[in-house]
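Example 3.
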Amino acid sequence: EPEVTQTPSHQVTQMGQEVILRCVPISNHLYFYWYRQILGQKVEFLVSFYNNEISEKSEIFDDQFSVERPDGSNFTLKIRSTKLEDSAMYFCASRATGPRLDNEQFFGPGTRLTVL
Amino acid sequence: AQTVTQSQPEMSVQEAETVTLSCTYDTSENNYYLFWYKQPPSRQMILVIRQEAYKQQNATENRFSVNFQKAAKSFSLKISDSQLGDTAMYFCAFMTSGTYKYIFGTGTRLKVLA
C-alpha cells in the first residue's frame, strides 16, 4: 500500500541553524501539506502546496519557513534559522484530487525536530 | 473561522466496555468533512473514521461509529468493545471544501484499562 515517507525521523539542531525536513508524498497525489505538533498540543496546519506553489499558509508559517518540490517527488520544509520554539513533530501529508470531497490526507510518520 | 473543540482532555474505559469521545465544531460552511484520527505513542496519525456533512447516516467502521448531529455541530466517536490497543490520543478534525486543510481539536487522551 502506498504511503507517505519522511526523513529524518529525528533531527537535532542548534538554535540558529537551518534545517530541511524531507517528505515523499504518495506518487499520484497533487496536494501536499505540512503540519506541526508541539509536544502535548494539537496538530496545527502550517502550509498547503499545489501546482508548485503555496495555496495557503498559516500565521505560524512566517518568513523563516519555506517549502518546495525540487524534483517532482520530494516535498521539503526548510526552516532558515531555527528557534527553540520550533521544537515539534512535523508531519507531511498528501491528498489526491477528484470530484469528491472525501479525499482524506495521508500522513507521514513525522519528523521530530529538537532545537537546542 | 472554523474551530474544533474537544472538551474531554482525558478519559479511561475498562477493556470490552464502550466509550464516547465528544467533539463540537463551528463553521458557516455547508460542505465539509469530519474525521477522527488516532495517535498512539508512536505519534503516527491514523485515520479512524470520517463523515461527509451531506450524509445523514452516521459512519461506522467495525467497532468505531460516530454520532453526527449537523444542526448541533456535534461529532462524537463511540468505541465499542474497547481494546488495550485503543489506548491513544484521539483528535477530531474538520476539513472544508475550499482549502482542504485539516483543523484539529486539542485531543482526548484515552486509556483502556485491563
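Chain B has a mean pLDDT of 93. The interface with chain A takes residues 31-33, 35, 42-45, 47, 50, 52, 91, 93, 95, 97, 99-107 of chain B (CB under 8 Å).
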